[in-house]
């Protein structure tokens, strides 16, 4: 087998593997979206849940501003690319990109939930793309005749945003603190407090070294453990009286974490198309391999 044949075989293996991965990963997302029922925030179970509601601004916190347009928003993602041309080949190279990490406040008819967007696959409805001759654009993109007079193709800018008042579909790991909903592991809580106290051993001696010999004997350690248990129970009692605070974040397991301005059906349809494309790509790779190895 010559080098050309080996190159074709390698190409066939690569597109077969890439298509297979795309097929399996996207179909897995479709199943997670469709198999997870939509929950109400107040009654949602702890763990992997699907929520749907309206975005609101955080209390006493000014809104963010899009880094390229300066538009007020609740979340942003941007990318700056530079155009490169070398003879017959041309491409866009990414120079800068990033996204905001401030929590989002989602509300439905039953309550509110803070969403940590870090690690999420976000599909916002607001997306702007334009070109220019400056590395960093100055505010909103020009329109009409002004865009034609000042436009350029050296740099391309993309900014996506989530705004207050927009609907949001979210699926991820849900947890609640306060409101009496969290469980209480007395032993684990006591051990945590003991570790905190041992970090300040001088303070521990000052509180429990009753005979002043500079160390804690067996009886004194018994008092330390009893005090730690009572402290754990007091902390749990105090946490239970606080209003429930709901949070949604990236799951620890490899489950989809998706935030979208579009509904479940739109997302599922998009993932189905991507899965179909992956299956077709995998089939093309398999056919190429079969033709080369036959």
Automatic annotation (TrEMBL):
| GO molecular-function term, one example from the UniProt record | ligase activity
Q: What is this protein called?
A: RING-type E3 ubiquitin transferase
Q: Which UniProt keywords apply?
A: Ligase, Membrane, Metal-binding, Transferase, Transmembrane, Transmembrane helix, Ubl conjugation pathway, Zinc, Zinc-finger
A GO cellular component entry from the record: membrane
Q: What is its EC number?
A: 2.3.2.27
Kindly indicate whether the keyword Transcription regulation belongs to this entry: no
The residue range of the signal peptide is none
């Amino acid at each position: 087998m010559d080098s050309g044949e080996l190159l074709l075989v390698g190409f066939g293996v690569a597109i077969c593997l890439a298509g297979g991965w795309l097929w399996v990963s996207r179909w897995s997302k479709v199943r997670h979206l469709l198999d997870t029922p939509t929950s109400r925030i107040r009654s949602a179970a702890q763990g992997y849940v699907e929520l749907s509601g309206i975005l609101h601004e955080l209390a006493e916190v000014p809104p963010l501003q899009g880094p390229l347009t300066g538009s007020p928003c609740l979340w942003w993602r941007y990318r700056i690319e530079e155009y490169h041309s070398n003879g017959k080949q041309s491409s866009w190279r990414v120079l800068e990109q990033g996204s905001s990490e401030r929590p989002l406040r989602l509300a439905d008819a039953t309550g509110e939930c803070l969403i940590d967007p870090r690690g999420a696959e976000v599909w916002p409805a607001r997306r702007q793309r334009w070109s220019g001759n400056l590395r960093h654009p100055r505010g909103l993109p020009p329109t009409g005749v002004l865009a034609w007079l000042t436009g350029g193709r050296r740099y391309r800018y993309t900014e996506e945003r989530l705004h207050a008042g927009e609907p949001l579909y979210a699926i991820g790991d849900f947890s609640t603190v306060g409101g009496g909903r969290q469980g209480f592991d007395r032993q684990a809580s006591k051990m945590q407090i003991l570790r905190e106290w041992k970090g300040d051993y001088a303070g521990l001696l000052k509180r429990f070294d009753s005979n002043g010999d500079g160390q804690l004997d067996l009886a004194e350690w018994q008092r330390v453990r009893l005090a730690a248990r009572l402290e754990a129970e007091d902390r749990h009692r105090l946490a239970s009286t606080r209003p429930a605070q709901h949070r949604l974040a990236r799951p620890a397991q490899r489950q989809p974490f998706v935030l979208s301005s579009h509904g479940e059906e739109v997302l599922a349809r998009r993932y189905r198309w991507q899965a179909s494309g992956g299956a077709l790509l995998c089939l093309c790779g398999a056919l190429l391999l079969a033709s080369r190895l036959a």
